Amino acid sequence: MTKPSCVGIDLFAGAGGLSLGLANAGFDMKMGIEIEKYSAGTLQKNNPHQKVITANICNLSPLMVLKKNGLKPKEIDLIAGGPPCQGFSKSNMRSRHIGNPLNEMYLEYFRFVKDIKPEIFLFENVAGLTLLPYGQRFKEIKAIGEKMGYKIQAEIVDSQNCGVPQQRKRVLIIGTKSKIDNILMCDKKPLITVKNAIDDLPVVENGNNTDELPYKKSSGLTKYQKIMRKNCGKTVRNNIVTKNSDLILERYKHIPEGGNWRAIPPHLMKNYSNPQNCHGWIYYRLKQDHPSVVISNFRKNMLIHPTQDRGLTVREAARLQSFPDNYIFYGTKESQQQMVANAVPPLMAEKIGKKLIEIL
Predict the structure, then answer these.
(1) This prediction's pTM
(2) Would you call 62 helix, strand, or coil by DSSP?
(3) Of 296, 82, 294, 76, whose CA–CA distance to 173 is shortest?
C-alpha cells in the first residue's frame, strides 16, 4: 500500500521532463534545482506548485535549502536527478572526454542524498556512462550509493520501449533502503512512429517565427496524438524553427528518409574541411514509419523533418520527447531547442515512477 503522498525533489531538473513524469506517476514533486535560467523558468511556469530554485547546486546546503522551503529531510521519499553528462555522451564529441569537469557533478547529487537520506534515489544519465573509458565512473557511482546503505539496481532503458516515439537509451541507477527485485524491467510496447507522433502539428516554413499556430486539419488522430493534445484547444505553441540558408536547404533536398550528410553531393559540402569527421546524425532525415533517432541538439545536428525540407520545430521535438502540448517552453529559440533536447522523456519517467511509488 503506497503512502497518501510520496514526496520527491528533482536535482539538475532542467525544463522538467523528469519532474513531470514522476508527478504523473503520483509523486508530489516539492522542489526542483536548476542553474540555467530559461530552463528553471520553464519548469516553474509549467509546475506552479513546485518550488524551483535557480542556483548552482554546488553553492547550496541540502538541509538549509529544505528548511528555507518548509521541508524536512524525513518528508522526502525520493531524490531524483540527472547530473550533466556532456563528458559521457556520444552526441557531443567536443566535450566527450573523461576530464570534463562536469563529470564530477554526480558528487553534488550524492551530497544531497547523504544529508537528506531519502527512501529512494533515482540517478539518470546517458548510456555512455556504462562504457569504457567511463565504466569506472559508473562503478564508483554505484559504490557511493552502496556505501550510504542503499541496495543498488541499474539498467539501461530505451525510451521507445516506454511509449516514447524516440530511440533514446538512458542508464538508470536506483537506490532503495530495502532489497527490491526488478524495479525497472521496462516492458516493450508497440513502437510509436514519427508520423503517428507529429503529423497533426502545424505545417510551417523554414525559419517560421510564429509561436502559436492552429493544428493541421486531420481526418483522425492517433492514440498518441490524442494523449499529447489532452486539455488543449485548437492551437499549439512553440512552433518556431531555425531559419536555414539556401545552401543548407539545397543539401536537404538530396537526403532521403533515413539518410544523412553522406547523401549530399561533394560540391555542396566544400565548406567542411573534412566531412568524414561528421557523425551519423548530422543532416539526418527522420523516417516517418520508425521512432525518431535520439533528440539531442536537433538544431546543431540539423535533424530534418521526414517530408519537408526544414529542421524540426521546438514543438515537433517536444512531441518526440513525449512532452504534452500544454507544456510550454520559454526563453530564446536556442534555449528552447536545447532544453527540449536535454530533457528526460516524461513518459519514460512516468513509467519508472509508477514502479518506484509501488514500493513506498
Answers:
(1) 0.92
(2) helix
(3) 82
